[in-house]
Amino acid sequence: MLASRNGLHASTSLHSHIGSAPLYLAPTTKLTILPFPPMVDPSKRQPPHHLTGSVTSIKVEGPLGTVIVPLRDFVKLNWEEANKLVGSKKKQQTTNSTQQKAGEEAEPRKLTLSVDDATIKIQRGTWGLTRAILANAIEGVQEGHTIKIRMVGVGYRAAVDDDPFPRLDKFEEAFAQLSEKYSIVGDEEQRNFYLRAISKSNDNLRKKQRLSLRLGYSHPVFLPVPRGISCTTPQPTQIVLKGADKEALGLFAANIRKLRPPEPYKGKGVFVGDETIKLKAARKK
Predict the structure, then answer these.
(1) 65-102 pLDDT tens trace
(2) pLDDT tens for residues 223-250?
(3) What are the backbone dihedrals phi and psi of residue 67, each rounded to the nearest 5 degrees, phi first?
(4) Are 205 and 172 within 8 A, CB to CB?
(5) Shortest CA distance to 103 belongs to which of 90, 116, 94?
(6) Distance (Å, rounded) from C-alpha 259 to C-alpha 223?
(7) Fewest beta carbons within 10 Å, which of 32, 115, 145, 252?
(8) Hey, what domains does the chain have and what are their CATH numbers?
């Protein structure tokens, strides 16, 4: 029994063991270890290679897209291949006595994470963090993430249309300035990987969309929809965001919300998900 610091109770500390929880991958999901760290913001100069040499990344590919997840060198991936088959039916052939399996479907692959020394605080914290980020990436490429946004206010409207002035985002602008003399990416393999990804998005530059918002200002607000995010408006006051990258979805939703945060007196504003706000009493003059 361990006494708590405030002295109110004494109980044993319980660990969540998030890092050791297994992950299950569908046959259509593929994981690839990349020998370089993920490019979080290519518009900024990257740290020296000797500082990031211990950080690699995992490319998670699936039917709905690709997500890059950082991976530290002390985090290990342990695979457990499934040998059984589910949903199989055996059929006896009349020509010979052999059995034939029909409708075979492989079981999802099992993946667990481990660290070199779980007693070290940084490794123990990174263990659970990496597992949580990887779980979100696997769920995103297999099933996708969805964020619903609702707008409350007189005259608040949202619409999605084609962007008449498509612009490069910060990733594309940074890589467009690459040259032999100065490179924002230190590793050649890393630079070529992201250049190939950017070149694919440039082919669809004319198909970019923008989100048009009317939030009580004297002018409409236009936000370009980021790559990898699907934006729809089933109703004029509702926005539905879908995508494989949960972090990118949350960031775009936060950018929409900060244009008109919920206010506590009339309850107007942009609400993300199941967000609610407690109303205050009206101010008395």
Answers:
(1) 888 888 888 899 998 764 433 333 333 333 233 333 33
(2) 999 888 999 999 999 999 999 999 989 9
(3) -130, 135
(4) no
(5) 90
(6) 11
(7) 32
(8) 23-82+110-142 (3.90.930.12), 145-166+208-272 (3.90.930.12)
